[in-house]
Design goal:
Radius of gyration: 30 Å
Number of helices: 24
Number of strands: 0
Largest sheet: none
Helix content: over 70%
C-alpha cells in the first residue's frame, strides 16, 4: 500500500464521516421539533419507548445523537431512567439501518445522487427543500466515501504486514477490543461497522472476525454519551451508565451465544450466502434485536445497577418527592370547579417552594454560605417542574366546557403560576450576585449590607403574607399586603438614595454598588409578583394596576 493509497483511505473515511454528519444534520433539521416531541412522548411503557428509540434513530441516523438527547431529557427531568433505557434499546436497533443501506452496491449511482442533492441544497431557497437536499447529498457522500475506501484498501490484501495484523484479530477477545477502540476513535458504531464491511468485501477480514468487531463496536459507541454526561447531573450520568451496561451485557450475551451455538452465524450467512457485506449488515441488525429482546425483561435491574454504580443521594430522593404533582391528577373524572381548586392547592405548594428558595438565597448571600447555593438551584428545578406541569394541566383544562367564572379563574391561576415562578427566578439571581462578589472579590459597605438586610426581611414578609392570603382566601388581610408591599417600595427608594450618597462619598466601591442595585431591584420585583398573587382571586381591584 503506497502513501497515496493511505491518503485515499483517509480521504474516503473522512468523506464517509462527513456524509454521515451532513445526512444526520439534514434529517434533524427536516424533522424540526418533532424529534423532541416524539422523545417527550416516550412513556413508562417500555415497548413504546423502544419504538420511539428506533423511530428517532431512523430519522437522524445516529444512535449517539439519540442517546445524547436522552441524557439531556433525563438531566432536565423530562424523562425518567426507566423511560431512557427503552429509548436506548430502540436506538441500538435503529442505528443498524446504516449498514443495511451501505450493503447495497450503489456506488455507480452515487454521482447522480450527489448531483440531485447539490441542486436541491444550492439552488432552492425553501428551508425544507435545502434540508432534504443535504440528506441526499450526505447519502451520496456515504457511497462515494465507501467506493474510495474500497479502492484504497484493495492493495492491503497483498500486504503481509497488514495481513499479519488482521490475523491477530482471529482471537475473539482481541477483535472485540479492537472494535471498541476503533469505534471509540470514530465515535460512531455505524461508521466503524461500514468500514469493517469494506474490509470484508475486499477479502482482508473474514466474516467470523468481522462479527466480533461488530460486537466491540457496540460497546465503543457509548463513548460520545460518556463524554456528554460529564457535564450532566447524576441522573444524566446514570443514563450514560445505562447505555454502557446495556452494551457490555450485549457483548457478553452475544459472544456466549455464538460460542455455544455457532449455528446462529451459519444461519445468518445463509440469508445472503454470496454477499459478505450483507452478511455483516444482517449480523449487526439481528444481534441488536436479540440483545433488546433478551435485555428488555431485565431493564429494571439494569436501571438499579446504574443507580448502584452512581448511588441515589438523600437529596435526590427528596427532590424526586418534590418534583411531582400531588393534587392534579385526572381532570376528566372530576368537575371543573374541583379541578380548579386542586390546581390552586398545587400552586400554593409551588409558592411554598419559591418562598423557601428566596429565603435560602438571602441567607446564603448574607452568610457567605456558598455550600448552600446548590439548594437554591435544586429548588429552582422543582419550581420549574411545577411551573411546566401545572401550566400544561391548566391549558388542558381550558379545552373543557367551563363557565365564564371558571374560565376567568383559570386564566388568573395561570398568571399566578408565572408570578410565583418569577420569584424563584429572582432567588437564583441573588445567588449569582453572591458568586460574582466572591469571584470578583467585590465588597459592599456595612451600611449597604444593613440596608439590604432590611429590605430583604420586608420582602420575605411581603411574599409570605401574600401567599397566605392566596392560600387561605383571607382577603381581609389584603390591607396588610398593601402595607408590606408599600414598605418594600419605600425601602427601595430610601436605600437607593443612601446608596447613591455612599457612592458619591466613595464609601462603596463601584462593582459592589452594581450588585447592590441589582439585588434591591430584584427584591422589590419579588414583592410585586407576590402582591399580584394575593389580589388575583380576591375579586377586588386595587387603586393601582397589577404590579409587573
Amino acid at each position: 500500500m503506497t502513501v497515496l493509497d493511505a491518503f485515499s483511505l483517509l480521504g474516503g473515511v473522512g468523506l464517509f464521516l462527513y456524509g454521515m454528519t451532513l445526512m444526520s444534520a439534514g434529517l434533524r433539521n427536516a424533522a424540526g421539533d418533532r424529534l423532541r416531541l416524539i422523545l417527550e412522548k416516550a412513556t413508562s411503557n417500555r415497548v413504546m419507548a423502544v419504538l420511539v428509540g428506533i423511530l428517532v434513530t431512523l430519522m437522524i441516523q445516529s444512535s449517539s445523537a439519540t442517546d445524547v438527547m436522552v441524557i439531556g431529557f433525563v438531566n432536565s427531568g423530562l424523562m425518567t431512567l426507566s423511560q431512557a433505557i427503552g429509548v436506548i434499546m430502540g436506538a441500538n436497533i435503529g442505528t443498524t439501518i446504516t449498514a443495511q443501506l451501505t450493503a447495497f452496491n450503489l456506488s455507480a449511482y452515487a454521482p447522480l445522487i450527489l448531483f440531485v442533492g447539490a441542486v436541491m441544497y444550492l439552488f432552492f431557497s425553501k428551508t425544507f427543500v435545502r434540508d432534504v437536499g443535504s440528506i441526499i447529498l450526505g447519502f451520496g457522500m456515504l457511497f462515494v466515501g465507501i467506493s474510495i475506501m474500497k479502492s484504497a484498501i484493495a492493495p492491503l490484501s497483498e500486504s503481509q504486514a497488514f495481513i499479519d495484523l488482521m490475523s491477530n484479530l482471529h482471537n475473539p477477545f482481541l477483535a472485540i477490543l479492537f472494535g471498541v477502540a476503533f469505534t471509540a476513535l470514530l465515535q460512531s458504531s455505524s461508521s466503524s461497522t461500514v468500514i469493517f464491511q469494506a474490509f470484508a468485501v475486499q477479502g482482508i477480514l473474514d466474516y467470523q472476525t468481522a462479527v466480533y468487531l461488530v460486537i466491540g463496536a457496540a460497546v465503543g459507541s457509548v463513548t460520545p454519551n460518556l463524554l456528554a454526561s460529564l457535564t450532566a447531573n447524576r441522573n444524566g450520568k446514570r443514563t450514560a451508565i445505562l447505555n454502557l451496561v446495556f452494551n457490555l451485557i450485549r457483548a457478553v450475551l452475544l459472544t456466549t451465544l455464538i460460542t455455544v451455538f455457532p449455528q446462529i452465524l451459519t444461519a445468518i450467512q445463509s440469508l445472503s450466502p454470496d454477499n459478505v457485506g450483507r452478511q455483516i449488515a444482517n449480523t449487526h441488525t439481528i444481534f441488536a434485536i436479540i440483545a433488546v429482546v433478551v435485555e428488555f425483561w431485565f431493564a429494571p435491574m439494569i436501571v438499579k445497577l446504574a443507580q448502584t454504580i452512581i448511588p441515589v443521594l438523600p437529596e435526590e430522593t427528596r427532590k424526586a418527592r418534590e418534583q411531582q404533582l400531588i393534587y392534579i391528577n385526572h381532570f376528566t373524572s372530576i368537575p371543573a370547579a374541583v379541578a380548579l381548586s386542586n390546581a390552586k392547592l398545587e400552586i400554593v405548594r409551588m409558592g411554598h417552594f419559591a418562598l423557601q428558595n428566596l429565603t435560602t438565597a438571602i441567607e446564603c448571600f448574607f452568610a457567605d454560605d456558598y455550600d448552600r447555593l446548590q439548594e437554591v438551584i435544586d429548588g429552582e428545578d422543582t419550581v420549574d417542574y411545577l411551573d411546566h406541569n401545572i401550566t400544561m394541566a391548566l391549558v388542558e383544562l381550558r379545552s373543557y366546557r367551563l363557565s365564564d367564572r371558571d374560565r376567568t379563574r383559570l386564566t388568573k391561576l395561570l398568571l399566578d403560576v408565572a408570578d410565583i415562578e418569577r420569584i424563584s427566578d429572582y432567588a437564583v439571581n441573588l445567588t449569582e450576585y453572591a458568586e460574582k462578589l466572591r469571584d470578583r472579590k467585590g465588597t459592599i459597605s456595612q451600611a449597604g449590607l444593613d440596608d439590604l438586610q432590611e429590605i430583604a426581611h420586608a420582602t420575605l414578609d411581603s411574599v409570605q403574607c401574600s401567599l397566605e392570603v392566596f392560600a387561605m382566601d383571607s382577603y381581609e388581610n389584603l390591607d396588610m399586603v398593601d402595607k408590606l408591599e408599600q414598605k418594600v417600595d419605600h425601602l427601595q427608594d430610601s436605600c437607593t438614595a443612601r446608596h447613591v450618597e455612599r457612592l458619591m462619598n466613595r464609601q462603596c466601591e463601584a462593582f459592589g454598588g452594581v450588585i447592590f442595585s441589582d439585588f434591591i431591584t430584584d427584591l422589590e420585583r419579588c414583592a410585586d409578583h407576590a402582591y399580584n398573587v394575593a389580589y388575583s382571586l380576591s375579586g377586588r381591584e386595587d387603586d393601582d394596576d397589577a404590579e409587573v
